[in-house]
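Supplementary material to the annual report.
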Amino acid sequence: MDARDEKATGGGAAPALPFDGPHLDALMERAGIDVLVVSSKHNVQYLVGGAYRFFFFSHFDAIGLSRYLPLLVYVRGKPEDAAYVGNPMENYERELGKFWMPEFVRAWGSLGSMAAAVERIRKLGREGATIGVERAFLPADAEELLRKELPAARIVDATIPLERLRAVKTPEELGYLRLASERVVESMLAAIAQHGPGSTKAEIVETLRREEVSRGLTFEYCLITAGTSLNRAPSDQVWREGDPMSIDSGGNYKGYIGDLCRMAVAGEPDAELEDLLAEIEAIQMAARVPIRAGALGGDIFASAGEVLRTSPNGNILDFVAHGMGLISHEAPRLTDAAPVPYPGDDAGQPLQAGMVLSIETTLPHPRRGYIKIEDTVVVTEDGWEAFGDGGRGWNRSGAAAKA
Amino acid sequence: MDARDEKATGGGAAPALPFDGPHLDALMERAGIDVLVVSSKHNVQYLVGGAYRFFFFSHFDAIGLSRYLPLLVYVRGKPEDAAYVGNPMENYERELGKFWMPEFVRAWGSLGSMAAAVERIRKLGREGATIGVERAFLPADAEELLRKELPAARIVDATIPLERLRAVKTPEELGYLRLASERVVESMLAAIAQHGPGSTKAEIVETLRREEVSRGLTFEYCLITAGTSLNRAPSDQVWREGDPMSIDSGGNYKGYIGDLCRMAVAGEPDAELEDLLAEIEAIQMAARVPIRAGALGGDIFASAGEVLRTSPNGNILDFVAHGMGLISHEAPRLTDAAPVPYPGDDAGQPLQAGMVLSIETTLPHPRRGYIKIEDTVVVTEDGWEAFGDGGRGWNRSGAAAKA
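Predicted assembly:
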């Protein structure tokens, strides 16, 4: 059967949703949004369900003079009106039963996709709706077309309600995050064991990349330091005997990020290095103490802060905690110290079971280098669980490089 | 040294450019563009040079409530006024000497990046300039800010001049493309050798992914068919004894794509399969005959078409040729049949040495399945050279799956 002869059809009974439909409807209502036109890969994945990400454009977007632009049109309270605008090749995925959306429309390029979404909205008679888009993930040409073609519509940003929808993870999502975290740490330990004095940071990162991929992950990045340098880019810098090394890597499984930092040393750690890591460990563990459903996000900072303030290096230590999942920094938003300025602040809100936190303590030591531990901790009803919690001490390098 | 204490400085003598500056200036002048604000990863990489792609955001963009948005500001004829707006962590890369741009500015999020670019343009007194952007790769919120902050500026699309700049590849780029092509084909042959009847398409793609990564490539995608199905998505479909299989994969080396298609068969090909592949091969080879600097792009279609028209399956055969490089479909734009509608048409223009073409012949056979060969051919002064030109026949499967 030639896929091109297939006709997509729509309408009919309300489909079963792979996400919490009533929750999304409530979030949309609170934000005054009638129709969503979702365009980011992470939110399209979340709403399509089944950890869907179109395989052809999983890593890049550009093609020809334009790009891949998936658009999921969702009408509040009416899943039966939903439509998915995808690349023509995504019909292969439709044939495999990946889409719950009653209508699938094929389009090329950012303008082709938006034209198809506009047509769908018109067909539904929602030309005057308040339409929620993700403005940081919607190309300028596509948004202009939307505004021009639907002049009566009100266009608003839907980033925050969509982020809120993803804040509490399902058991399936927690499984992905656990697996990603465990495999990132296993990969780090394997890479450290294969390298020693004489290896460059770039070589160690390349080994890590292959180790993550061989465990079924998609490698995202590695921030790495060696010796006293605080430069975290992979480079030709050589790891030397006695040097500490920080390895902070993100790798995803089905889009869910494992993001942890572990320490290594070429040889044996001296007493000062042991003390410095113990100082970080004490803060990391103090941060976990209050975590349970119902505790406030701010309690984590209070508990960690108490230890940090009396720490020998408290003046240069940096503590941060933030939600994570499909994005490495997402809800719950616990701190202003997170890199992207957050308009909201969840520090005063109760944590919920199924929220996943990244907890990080960093010591950029002027004499001993960059020392850091980053952990992944999931909130449970009566406490917490840490994913990929091994390798927290000084991991010894393997054999010296052959060169 | 703590990167945060560093101060980026600008101004001074004209820096050496890693691209053809006069060519870019001429392209800008022809398009009436005074200032470029480049935002796509491929064009930022091209203009920064050294196959630069910031490692932390190489694969994803989203962080917090916004995204990574690199912006390269280039003023026509004035490289000394260029500025690069990057993520604060990119200062690690600046410290390593990766940037020729005299000014480096750190920003978070799409609005933060654009605010920094606007400030730079103001400082240069170019508030009334014609500014070229990539509208399919510029978020709607960032473009709105640009228009609002610089109301006297004229904003135009710069996609085509930037694509034109990349059309003829340097020896360094050709080296990357050769390596990517060769390693993609090697990886395919390795994956085919490790699988046989009983393996699923998804298992074979996972092996291919690991083989590409183990050769230093970034795996992009694999379109795959087995047996008589024309569905090209990785899935649980089982490869059965006697089944043909098409494997069409893209993998990049330093951003440059190797994109080829090879055929395999579980067991031995029968006479009909041999004939069908020979039919494709004849068209692929006819397409190469006219290729040399100075020949017209359309000559390729004329030569291939002559064979295609008299081919037994000419009525369902599909032939296409298109430029490739940092993007899998780029200049020279030779055909309307390419997936993304091309406003320009290079078919009537002379080919230039250093242009790289992807040449594809596809036979979606209703009874024998999807049979296809895709090659990478570089135009030289007196002819052509094919990269990764092995494995063009029926590659036999390895042992049957253990299951």
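The radius of gyration of chain B is 24 Å.
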